[in-house]
Amino acid sequence: MKGFIKLPREIAEWEWYQDSNTFRLYIHLILHANYTDKKFRGTLVRRGEFITSQKGLADKLNLSIQNIRTALKKLKTSGYITVKPTGKYTHITLVEYDIMQDKYTPTNTPTNIKVTDNQHKSNKLLTTTKEGKNSNEKNKETIKRRKEDFKNEVFKRSQYSNKILNDFFNYWSETSQKTFKMKWEDSKYFEIENRLKSWKNKEENWDTKKSKSDFVPSHNR
Q1: pTM of the predicted structure, to 2 decimals
Q2: CATH of 1-111, one of 3.40.50.12780, 1.10.10.10, 1.10.3330.10, 3.30.300.30
């Protein structure tokens, strides 16, 4: 593996800095995340994303799978990553990758790269100051991309009607303007197939109840 990443000194003030497992995992993800869009076995893996598995991470970092699960959960609930299971793999997105790592250019070298004051202010790793305009634009781009990925994943389930898929997607893709996270991303355990089955059953029950309430028997025949 060639190249380098940016790592500001202020990371020593990060909330998970003293949690060795979580800190090591996060640095590992930054090191291995795509810096350009690529395809992995037919799946588009964009910049700032990484396809792996819990076992693969455990082997690489010499940690137990339970350690990896716990660290992933901490990073996810803190808003630093999103995690999407895809069969036997895990698709991880680093939410603020573009904020931390500027686009690589030929003039960038390890000696002249640094994180600017504006990046310090917008990066959750560095400060709790309210995000500025540039950060908000980055977040909007990121959420748009994640919404597209989520929608593609939902609409793969062609056994469900378009109405169910649309209703399901519209509900779970609702985004918080404060955290820039979709509703499904705030859920600790989210398996699309199981959630869709439950959604379908609820809609069918609702339609049945509605049909019964709409039926008014005639007593004047």
Answers
A1: 0.48
A2: 1.10.10.10
